[in-house]
Amino acid sequence: MSQLSTQPAGQPAKRSRKRDYNAISPVWNTIFNIVIGLFSFSCIFPFLFVIIISLTDEQTLVLEGFRLLPSQFSTQAYEYIFETGSRLFSSFGLTLLVTVLGTLVSLALVTTYAYALSRRNFEFRGFFSFLAFFTMLFSGGMVPGYIVMTQFLHLQNTIWSLIFPLSLSAFSIIVMRTFFQTTIPDEIIESAKMDGAGEFLTFARIVLPVSLPGIATIGLFSSLGYWNDWFNALLYYNNPQSTPPLQYMLMQIEKNMDFLTQNAQNIGSFDAAAGLPTETVRMAMVVLATLPIVMAYPFFQRYFVQGLTVGSVKG
Questions:
Q1: Among the residues of 119-198, which ranges form H helices?
Q2: Distance CA 310, CA 218 (A)
Q3: H-helix or E-strand containing 106?
């Protein structure tokens, strides 16, 4: 009785609830891990299944359909694609160059634009914010863009025609502006100015090192856009003698293959058309186009979630 009188009335009940929670939490953690594991596997499984199909023999695929363990594997699809030889590797190198150079140009334009919008003392902040937001709703159109790129800038069939159309994204500007506003305190910038630093020195020495999560997030978005882009190559990079980007070249291979298959009767080459690995080649194209960017994603992963949540949710 004396022990009970020295304790508050509700304390024993709290301790019992705490013991019950500690007893149940491992079970819920196990269930949560299983659910997350199944969800992660459901995201990875389609890509693994595409790899399996790309390594399946075409005739086996026609007879047996799509199976996880086909009876006969084959690299015929990849051999058909690599028949282009050095042209394919040149196309891969061009796409890699466009992706790296375009990402750097995009980050330079987006970060400087967003930093200016994040400064409250910028006189034209409202106008340029409205200008960036307006382009998210209404674009200039394909015809004006084509006229500007070919007639005014004369960038047709140059590498810059693949870089400039995707270099400035309004969505990226808004995300980075919000990231600067929520991450960089005004006191840090004011203290740098008191030490004699100008706007560019403050931006390069203080703002950019602190903003690595947001920059990595925008850089990943930009890299994906440049790597998967084929439409700008179709518009501005149509010289038959020049090497096209990887995505556009894979699309040309698929079109040529479909043309041979559909017009086999007119051409009179049934055996050649029947031997073309149509379905497996499509899957092999997906693997070749996706695998490099998938391998690069883990390097951005630790910055990606933090940069995206800070830059968008808090805004």
A1: 125-137, 142-147, 170-183, 186-194
A2: 12
A3: helix 86-118
Separation in Å, CA 135 to CA 4, 60, 228, 284:
70, 50, 22, 36
Handedness of CA 170, 172, 173, 174 (dihedral sign): positive
All residues at 6 or more sequence positions from 168 whose CB lies less than 8 Å from its CB, including other chains: 106, 109, 110, 113
pLDDT-above-70 percentage for the chain: 80
pLDDT of residue 90 exceeding 50: yes
Amino acid found at 279: E
CA distances from 263 to 68, 94, 213, 258, 280 (A): 32, 32, 52, 8, 20
pLDDT band at 313; cut points 50, 70, 90: very low
Q: What is the model's pLDDT at position 304?
A: 61
Q: How confident is the model at residue 1 (pLDDT cuts 50, 70, 90)?
A: very low
Report H helices in 6-85.
11-54, 58-64, 76-81
- Give yes or no for a contact between 67 and 279, defined as CB atoms under 8 angstroms apart: no
- pTM value is 0.75
* pLDDT value, residue 305: 57
Cβ count within 10 A of residue 151 = 9
Compute CA distances 136 → 113, 118, 130, 173, 228, whole Å: 15, 19, 10, 11, 20
Amino acid found at 203: F
Q: SS3 of 255, please?
A: helix
Tokens 């698929």 label which residue?
Answer: 254
In contact, 61 and 281? CB cutoff 8 Å: no
Please give the backbone phi and psi of residue 122, each rounded to the nearest 5 degrees, phi first: -75, 125
Q: Which residue has the higher pLDDT, 182 or 104?
A: 104
